[in-house]
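seq:
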Amino acid sequence: QVQLAESGGGLVQAGGSLRLSCVASGHTFSIYALGWFRQAPGKEREFVAAISWSDGSTYYADSVKGRFTISRHNVANSVYLQMNSLKPEDTAVYYCARQFTAFRGPLRTVPDEYDNWGQGTRVTVSS
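struct:
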């Protein structure tokens, strides 16, 4: 098992920036990839970005491409989400999760293919 803890959320004006952090503990050797997801009120959880733990390859949702950057620091067992040019529609609770260890190969984008979810951090973007 891996425990994931997100932080860095808050209230920001449209056009502003935030940097989210996710710290992993426990069986971190089992991490193949970590992903960021978000869930807005009344909506389903959606994929934001993912990163391979070994080679740092990344994949983004079209809605955040060019504005968000995912990165990792293996020694610190952390993954980050730098969010720039924020929009009101980015308002959501952001979650960090581990891609199923059995799923190697391409980075996954479906929430059901991830486990060990963190508790989430809330991001609110005002217009």
